[in-house]
Amino acid sequence: MSNGPAGHVARSTVRPNSETSRRAPIRTFLHSADGIPIDSVYDPGAVVYESLPDTVRTAARDLVFVIAHGFTGEADRPHVRRVARVLRRRGAVVTFSFRGHGRSGGRSTVGDKEVLDLAAAVAWARGFGHARVVTVGFSMGGSVVLRHAALYPGTVDAVVSVSAPARWYYRGTAPMRRLHWLVTRPAGRLVGRYGLRTRIHHRAWDPVPLSPAEAVPGIAPAPLLIVHGDRDGYFPLDHPRMLAGAAGEHGELWIEPGMGHAENAADDALLARIGDWAATAAG
Questions:
Q1: Disordered: where is this region (predicted)?
Q2: Eight-state DSSP code of residue 76
Q3: I need a surface site. Which of 28, 110, 148, 239 has the fewest CB within 10 A?
């Protein structure tokens, strides 16, 4: 396996080792530190591959991805399952539904208390014996993985944030203005509950949590990858550039041509590159 021109590990054709046939996923409810039940799935996949070099094969066996979905997502959404399917070529995968989403309890705080949900999922993933844990977050989940890595230093080995905001209360695009209506208005929260299966808390943040850009310096020395599309309709390019600037030498920025926003816009090729980056960076 060789490195490509951009420094990414080139993909090779892999086939599962016959001695390590894929095991069934494990599904359970975790509990966050504040007692919210979090619907979670651990998929060990087939994590040993005959055609990979020894170093990469070992990394695949030891590596687990914890996927943090975007606002209104959940563990069973097709785009979240697709992300998991691609990433498990490089390791095991944990998916979960943030509070207020899907079958999880509680109500969404749109990126604040969700850091407790991710902390529970990361601890669960580590408990399966994996030596390396990589968090991969999208949009709201992208902001959560940044804050989690800063607030829980040493618990993850690499962080990938896709389509994340750099600062709170951004209303500079039409989609973000609609999202603020959804979150702050009673009628919007009804739409969220019955139309989007997302139960949103009615209380405003108090105190306002650390912003993603403020959190980023605290992630070092863990490697950080920031991914953003140049056609993102929610957050323009000043957001990823602000995050990359805050990361300094510990961060890497990919601006993806033609890409829109979050999981739906991240194609399989990009997800595979993210998986390759993580397998190298976390090792």
A1: 1-23
A2: T
A3: 28
According to DSSP, the β-strands at 251-256 and 224-229 are parallel
109: tokens are 């705080």
Q: In what order do the strands lie in the sheet with 92-96?
A: 26-31, 37-43, 92-96, 63-68, 132-138, 158-162, 224-229, 251-256
- What CA–CA distance (Å, rounded) separates 158 from 156? 6
Separation of alpha carbons 162 and 262, rounded Å:
6
Nearest to 79 by CA among 139, 164, 124: 139
pTM greater than 0.85 (yes/no): yes
Tell me if 96 sits within 8 A of 121, measured CB to CB.
yes
pLDDT in tens, 6-59: 333 333 333 344 334 456 899 999 999 999 999 999 999 764 444 445 554 554
C-beta atoms surrounding 236 within 10 Å: 14
* Peptide bond between residue 25 and the one before it cis (omega within 30 degrees of 0): no
d(CA 9, CA 56): 10
Residue 162 identity (one-letter amino acid): V
First to last CA, the chain: 16
Between vectors from CA 204 to CA 203 and to CA 206, what angle results, nearest 5°? Answer: 110
The CATH class of 26-281 is alpha beta
The domain limits of the chain are 26-281
What is the mean pLDDT for each group of 10 consecutive residues in the chain (283 residues)? 36 37 82 98 69 50 93 96 95 97 97 98 95 97 98 97 97 96 95 94 94 97 97 98 95 97 97 96 88
Provide the pairing of β-strand 92-96 with 37-43: antiparallel
Residues forming beta bridges with residue 3, ordered by sequence position: 9
